[in-house]
Write a structure and sequence with these properties.
The chain is an alpha/beta fold. It is built from ten helices and twelve strands. The longest helix is centred in the middle third of the chain and has 23 residues.
């Protein structure tokens, strides 16, 4: 074998890809620390990732020492369509593999339509954006990721509808709760690392709520106890065109009621309408010991669920590439 061939085992490369999902700047040294692999194994995994078209190197500075070094980033060679489907609202974001939106569009949907009808409407509005993005960038578009709620419609029905409307089968169809758990597991919540349970609630274009529990591995998973939270939230909130103060009061009352029998270690709020109380105000409104964190939009305005869906979809894409051309060679050193 050629000595310059960056031979490395599949598990080692996948550990490096796992580490790249966490927030922050990644260097060869930080990846070696995160994966507990030797420097030489990480170097070979990076070179192999570059050859597979998954990674690139970029000159930069070490975030700790400030010394010049090379940052390891996902290769920006593809466009990833991400569709989010709610009863009243839908959106399409076109992301690069760095999970940065390159373009987006949204549409108000008819709640009396079936999820399939609303999905077709969203696709019709989004196809011009996809065509324009491919023409402008010259990049290929992957199969789309569709984020919805498990109870909205059978997955097979939505998959067939999406394939017919876009011309490509879905790359992934994650449930919104699982997307939120994935984003939190990847470091979207730096505070309260000791929290064992969380109540998530989003108010705005796509109301949603769920309960999450910390896993033994330190990540987050969805609790089955919270399956009825989203329908209850949507029934409680007034119409979208109601006065902001009425909407604000409804959310305050709902959270106060929930906290009477729920005791999550942390409450996470996404406020797409900009009308909810501040974290300081919540301390006075809720029972003591119910800390609230207002989640800020991610880069490009990504919601927590969108970021988690993009992480899941990108990883599914990477795994397909690796499975189509598996690396060979040595195992972990």
């Amino acid at each position: 074998m050629n000595q310059t061939d960056p031979s490395v085992s599949s598990p080692a490369l996948r550990l490096v890809l796992d580490a790249l999902e966490t927030e922050g700047t990644h260097t060869r040294r930080s990846l070696a620390e995160a994966t507990r692999l030797s420097d030489s194994t990480v170097s070979r995994a990076i070179r192999l990732g570059i050859r597979r078209g998954l990674l690139i190197r970029k000159e930069g500075a070490d975030p700790v020492s400030g010394r010049p070094c090379r940052h390891i980033l996902p290769a920006p060679g593809l466009l990833i369509p991400l569709l989010s489907l709610y009863p009243h609202h839908g959106s399409l974001r076109v992301l690069n593999p760095g999970l940065i939106p390159e373009g987006s569009t949204s549409v108000e949907l008819n709640p009396t339509f079936t999820p399939e009808e609303n999905l077709r409407l969203l696709c019709r509005r989004g196809l011009p954006l996809l065509r324009g993005m491919t023409t402008r960038t010259g990049l290929s578009v992957t199969s789309p990721i569709l984020v919805s709620d498990k109870a909205s419609a059978p997955a097979a029905t939505l998959a067939a509808c999406l394939t017919d409307a876009v011309g490509l089968p879905p790359l992934l169809m994650p449930d919104r709760d699982d997307c939120i758990a994935r984003a939190l597991s990847a470091g979207a919540l730096p505070q309260k690392r000791d929290a064992a349970s969380a109540l998530f609630m989003r108010v705005g274009n796509g109301d949603h709520a769920c309960i999450l529990l910390r896993t033994p591995q330190g990540g987050w998973t969805v609790s089955s106890l919270g399956h009825r939270l989203t329908p209850g939230l949507r029934r409680t909130l007034p119409a979208s065109n109601c006065p902001p103060e009425l909407l604000r009061r409804s959310v305050i009352d709902l959270l106060a009621e929930l906290c009477r029998f729920l005791s999550p270690d942390i409450i996470l709020l996404e406020d797409a309408r900009g009308i909810l109380p501040t974290e300081e105000e919540w301390r006075r409104l809720l029972p003591e010991g119910s800390p609230v964190v207002i989640l800020s939009p991610g880069e490009g305005g990504l919601t927590l669920a969108e970021r988690g869906a993009a992480l899941l979809g990108r990883r599914a894409l990477w795994d397909r590439i690796l499975e189509a051309s598996p690396p060979s060679g040595v195992s972990r050193e």
